[in-house]
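Posting for a labmate who doesn't have an account.
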Amino acid sequence: MDTKFELFDGGESNFNAPPSYDAVSMSSTSADSVQCRPPTTFSKEQIKQIRTTVLSLISDMVTAPDFIPSSVGPIIDACAASLPASEFTALLQESNIAGHTPLYWAVVNNRSEAFSALNKFIIRYTSNCLGDLRLACMVTSDHALFTKLELTSAFRHNKGGPLNRSLGCPTDDIQVYSGGDIQNQFTAKMQIAMFQKRMRVAQEICVELIAEGRIWCLLFYMGVDSRWYVSLGLAKDSLPARLKALFTVEAQNKQPRDLQVHFEPKKDHLLAPEGYMNCSIHTCNVLSASLGDVVMFNDTIYTDSDGALHAKLEVTLW
């Protein structure tokens, strides 16, 4: 027998017993039977009660072990129709499920269907939701989703995003590969578009990537000595790391002169995010190395015909 999901019935609502996820799963309902008939106007009390019911359904969808992917679309659409758009969008971006947003749990629990269905209702992330999504991608080491959602801090905190749009700059291409059979290693290959032009305008470029459960930050910048540098650091909430790293700028046109710099903390020191506090270990917040001036010369061998810098970062944790 079909079970109907009704947040409203004839203009009257009953919230004493919110329907469970099982009660509305597609194992016992069809898309046609998912009904939602909100009244013309909402009182504050009604909206509060509806939010409680909707949140309960969404919480089950992103955390319950008996998740049924095919049930996602109809249920979420019915939930969205039961609340004003602004209320539903706000609910999705609040830390209302065990201290995190519904989107966070959809990522962490690998509920891709639920994430896609919920995410379509959000035009712009709040700072709280965006930070939560960065954390979710870090926890799951999901660099692909991190890139797809444009969660890098360059788009949020500095002029990188607006500058790139003003220049008509394509998105930087960053690919992360594990060490294969060798544990605790990864390689990040990157093409940084319009490198010289962006550096000359902004004098810095920030690149972020996710690997080994951390958000790694590469910053290209001009130092106080007017030389060009690259630094390696960790973003907020990343665990400290004991590492050795090699950063290579690849020469183009088959030139055999790759530019290489090494990163390694001082003895007994770990690389840690800024603000990390642990009195039992010695930490540093950033590792820096000079690139000299050669990468910024006109007709340099270190950018391709489109002005992109090709580089790779190889990291070993120990």
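Reply:
Got it, the structure tokens are right above this. Confidence is low (pLDDT under 50) at residues 1-6, 8-21, 24-37.
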